[in-house]
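Now read these lines:
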Amino acid sequence: MASEMMEALMALCQERGIDQYYLIDRLEKSLAKSYADIMNLEYGAEVTIDKATGNIYVSKMVPKGEPDPETGEYTEFDYEDVTPEDTSRIAAHNAKAEIMAIVDRVKKERIYEEFSNRIGDLISGDVIQSTLDFTILQIRKGVEAELPHFDTRRHPDERNERPRGERYMTKDKGLKAVIVDVKNPNEGEPTRRSRPSIIVSRTNPDFVRRLFELEVPEVYDGVVEIRSIAREPGVRSKVAVASIDSRLDPVGACVGPKGSRVRSVVSELKGERVDVVQWSDDPARCVAEALSPAKVNRVLIEEKTRHATAIVPNDQLSLAIGKDGQNARLAAKLTGWKIDIKNEELAQGLFPSSFADEADDLLDEEGSHRCKYVDENGVRCRNMARPGSEFCGIHESAQSETMDLV
């Protein structure tokens, strides 16, 4: 019986990739607790497993000397052999559950060691289980991740990392998400033992960042920097980008030829709208860009209160605010400024005439180096023009084709 158990134990170690000596050590400590309870040993027991034969030896801990005067506990022990005749039967009864618990804990410890330094990384997995509260992804054989989508009203201590409107089926392959947490198996509540240690998210702003790194080489290489992301998962995101190379249009690089790159990102986000805008260290221009696609004429900045007032044409007010205030809300998150939006008609009555003269006219003053493309709705492109051209990389080729036809 002992040798058969040892053979099974070694086979399990080989199958799971676990060091057999480590597992035996853990099993000895676990069985010591079981034998101490079974044999009513007051001071505990010590168990030794012969690694060659699988024979189990049980020793009773006998205190010696005087107890510690502060704690009243003994610190030194002798060991007396009390190995019962039926050690194999008792061990076999307890070993299976103990071994599986140890194997599960060792696996989670190894996963923690590997993935705890990968928080923020993009992973891809196949959906192997989906419930009302969470979805399980298989990253690779033996490694699973949990994408929680609990109703936080009923489970306030849990997470909801699923964008609104998304649903997952077991047939879904290659679902992408970003790692947001890795649970330490030696900490936390025991109720999580049956759930994966790796927690992933599709709502985190870093998910959008990693997708752009995946689709846009300039972002991955660091030539184009994503300075800020504002997101309402499943509905709309705004991404502010800047280039360390003045010759490169960062917005055009992220959008890609005919919008191919940003379309790939939108596809992975299940149709979530993504606005890519130019970042600027000038707060006024940054606010104006963030309110895209609305046209902004002027921005008044209050540095102390971080308050910005954007002046837009009368017909652009609703577009600047957006449905249910979404465009303005995302722009405020993107820039970190509180934004108040007013149309020209209202602004003329609220601000003195000097404001109209001195305010930063974002389109007229620096319009010469911005793309001059105007769409059919009269909205001007907010991308930077390419060097030596009046148009950005997106509209330059289209303008050339139009001129050739003429």
In short: The CA atoms of residues 371 and 391 lie 4 Å apart. Residues 352-368, 402-406 have pLDDT under 50 and may be disordered. The first strand starts at residue 45 and ends at 49.
